[in-house]
Amino acid sequence: MNATRTQITGRIFRKMWQERTLASMANFVTDSIKDAVKSSILEEASRPDSKLWSAADSDGQTKPYADLKSDKETITMKNSLMTGYNHVNSPISPARLLMLHDPLDEWYLDSKPSGLSAPPLKPESDPFLLSKDDMKTLSQSIRSDLIGSDHPVLSKAAAYFFEEGQDGGKKVRPMMVLLLSRAMKIHTKQNSVVRPDLFQAQRRLAEISEMIHTASLFHDDVIDGADTRRGAPAVHKVFGNKMAILAGDYLLARASIFLARLRDVEVVETMSTIIEHLVRGEVMQMKGSDVGATENERMIQYLRKNFYKTASLMANSCKSAAILGGYNDSIVGAAYRYGKHLGIAFQLVDDVLDYEGSASTMGKPALSDLNAGLATAPILFAAEMYPEQLIPLIERKFKYQGDVDVAVDYVKKSGAMKRTKDLAQVHVEIAIESIAELGPSIYKEALVQLAHKVVDRTR
Amino acid sequence: MINSKSITRNTSSRKRYALAAAILAVNTVGPLTVSAFILPSLQHQRQRTNHVMRATAVAAKPSSPVVVSNNAEELSHSETTLRLKPSFDLFQLLTEEEGGIIPPTTTGNTHRDSTVLHTSSQPTDTLKDVKLADYIGKGKDSRKIESLPDPFKMVEKELKPFADSISELVSSDQPILSMAAKHFFEKRHGKRFRPVIVQLVAKAVAAAEPEQIGVNGAASHSVADGTANWAWSGASDVDVNSANHQGSDVWRKQAQLGQIVEMIHVASLIHDDVLDEADTRRGGESVHKLYSNKVAVLAGDYLLARASVLLARLENTSVVQIMATALESLVSGEIMQLKSPPKSLLQMETYLRKSYYKTASLICYACRSTALLGGHSYSSTVATACEEFGFHMGLAFQIQDDILDFTAAENVLGKPALADMDLGLSTAPILYATQEYKELRPLVMRRFKDKGDKQTALEYLYKSPTAMNKARALALFHAEKAVQAILRLPQSEARDALIRLTHAIKDIAMCKRTNGQKDGVATELKTKRR
């Protein structure tokens, strides 16, 4: 009797357990499948030669769909490119892209700064003073738009960095766009403008670039698990991961709507390329550099990643401002180069400040890059001098106890900070040189001042 | 996670694995038991008459970008919200018996006249005034759904070359992963449902002549200097008809739009998967889940970025605006789902609005964009009909899904999947049951958090004689409205295929079988939820 009862109970338990494991297995399968699928999207995205990055390359090559490769198609496509008629997946205005041919190969690593210092700062050409009012209205305008959302929590999360009275970051990007817009206008002295609302459009462009930047901050902070940003708790700490991601998406969507309302297709494409570059930079950062790369390769990869993550936004926003104004190709190129080199310098100085600054002067804690396992310019320069000691640390992403301190010591010993600052100075000089062709004005001086400030800043 | 040590070595464990694999396989490799389509396709020659004045003022540059005029902005946006009016304000959500109201006529939905596009110069529409209900039932008076073209077969070959689609992203040299990807991305509707709809709508609008729309009788339009009448917004300088549509640039752009829609959809799915810290701390799998978060955010961002660039290259700023609004709607829907005041969870209106934001908005905006890319203007009958079709179709699909959550899994697992209730969501069947049994209200308001809540809710659902049927009727209501909308377009193969697609939803929702053999289209659509 007892045996039978045990058997029956056993059978019941086994059945219940079977059902439970089946249900949980269904979940298990789904979760790991989802992870695998997402990872493979990223694997594909992280390959630089992946066809997914094609046609967005800044070297101006067009790579149409591989499958539509019949001869007739190719000929038609070539013809249409020559007559300016665009195939559905080719860049708009390929001529301009060819002009701006930017393979991201040359980083001026061997150049030396010419040692020129900033001209004396006059109050009428102080970039911050000149753009103060514009920045206030910018925050206000973004805030008033975001608050219009249906959902109060979403509005709050999205407008987190645009709150009234908040420091709201340095707003370098919109400042660049606005100052450049005015400088270019004065330079060309055009009386007839391409569009009557040019300055409003350029102002809106500055807002768009700030919104895209903020959206990328929201996402990056979730990815990095950062605790603070700009002196305040990071968005995802306040609202949760999911809300932070969704708020970032919402900002991106609003930015795209504004972008479309600018009614300029080339500008829409240029700014969309920024979004793609941001992701590309983030993926490059997550993947890290290849094991066994030479120091030079590592440095180039790092600099490219900087372009994608930081400089592309500045470069393409400036370029878009020029396109909106309908200026000629050389002005557009000048704007692009100014933004690009200033952006590179900006990021290099950021990386230096990470080693030199402390948590009180900046909104984020020092040595955050090292602690996160990222190898930035100072450590890469130091590794050129002390390869055997530092390369293993870099490759294991400073995981072991004491790695971070060792790295900091070597950086101090090798004078890598000065080398990084010099490189930043070189890029600043190139940026200033790019806009040299613009006619004199207080705005142009302000741009020069801004460029110098990038290197001389403490936060 | 499964503790492998406790898996017994008897054959039942092998059976479990086999069963799980079978479930996966069935969903992805759905058997195509399709009845061949019987009647010859309805071909009709179209004469391109000298029809309407369009934005030919800027015909000089074929690639001249399309803009939204100032008036359009004023009329389609309000001062404070600065956004396109959400479609649920334009079209009806609930039947009149349930308190739904026929929406007021606004500028977005004025052109719903079903006679506008059926001019006398065309052959008569064989499906004039047809209703979905005509296809239900086995009496000899009812029509046969197989008489309409098969939607999937029609566009199968066309969709192949577009290599940006998600299943190609996930590499093909790992077949298990491809299968798994299909399961993940297409878990509800299989077969790349959205691109199929976009392709079919593209063909259907190609058969419709762009209308002459003007203020004070004259169609004033000059895209270049922005004085175009708002009604012309979005219209581009294209000239396609059914005959030359396939392979044209317009067709390519529309196909590309289908892929963009798919990318946006998948990106939002992936971002919805991001876990909050509370979730990561549970179960001690925080490291794994944190990595998972990173990957989720980046993968979704990548897809959104790609979609933005491709959208820009369609060279139509109205479409960019509309699709960006779709992304915004997806985000709003997810947030509504996350954080809604408890009392609002009891209302059907909330559920339908959320369904609109999460599912229908993408489809309806995609349909309208397809019409714009096809050369029709923003306020044309064609564009409005497409949007209305997409709107009701999307809602019908969502309601169908929610019904399936209760009914479908029963056939395989022996008990309903209840994935929605696991997330705390109350869907149409439960809401109707709640209207009948007030005891369910607190359960719904606390999102089934307490132990035993789900079981209780399920019991009440089964107890209620009307809840499930009301949900089915709601799905049918929207399916009918979708058919009414699409019938405004002139007859074409694609339009009829869309009717068949809509019929398949109703089929599933009603759990009907025709002559013991399910309609092949319905089989393709029906999947089990996780």
Fill in the keyword field for this structure.
heterodimer; A: 459 residues; mainly alpha; two-stranded antiparallel sheet; globular; B: 530 residues
Structure notes:
- The complex is a heterodimer of chains A (459) and B (530).
- Chain A has helices spanning 2-46, 71-82, 94-99, 127-130, 132-146, 152-158, 172-188, 198-224, 235-239, 241-261, 265-287, 295-324, 329-356, 368-371, 377-385, 387-395, 403-414, 416-434, 442-456, and strands at 228-229, 232-233.
- Helices cover 67% and strands 1% of the residues of chain A.
- Chain A has a two-stranded antiparallel sheet with strand order 1-2.
- Chain A is mainly α.
- In chain A, helix 8 (198-224) runs parallel beside helix 11.
- Chain B is an all-alpha fold.
- Chain B is built from 20 helices and no strands.
- In chain B, 52% of the residues lie in helices and 0% in strands.
- The longest helix of chain B has 33 residues, at 381-413.
- Chains A and B meet through helix 1, helix 8, helix 10 and helix 11 of A and helix 1, helix 5, helix 8, helix 10 and helix 11 of B.
In short:
With 459 residues, chain A is an all-alpha fold.
Low-confidence stretches of chain B: 1-69, 72-82, 215-228, 280-285, 512-518
Q: How many angstroms separate the termini of chain B?
A: 17 Å
Overall mean confidence score, pLDDT of chain A: 79
Major β-sheet annotation of chain A = 2 strands, antiparallel
Given as residue ranges, the uncertain stretches of chain A (5+ residues, pLDDT < 50) are 22-29, 55-86
**Quaternary organisation of the protein chains:** heterodimer
Broad shape of chain B: globular
- Give me the Rg of chain A, rounded: 26 Å
Q: How can the largest sheet of chain B be summarized?
A: none
Pair of chains with the largest interface and how many residues each contributes: A-B, 83 and 93 residues
The helix content of chain A, as a percent range, equals 55-70%
Q: Based on CA inertia axes, which overall geometry of chain A fits?
A: globular
Q: What is the string of helix and strand elements of chain B?
A: HHHHHHHHHHHHHHHHHHHH
What's the arrangement of strands in the largest beta sheet of chain A?
Answer: 1-2
Proportion of residues in extended strands of chain A: under 5%
Give the helix/strand class of chain A.
Answer: mainly alpha
The end-to-end span of chain A amounts to 81 Å
Q: Tell me the total number of β-strands of chain B.
A: 0
- Give the structural class of chain B: mainly alpha
List the total number of helices of chain B.
Answer: 20
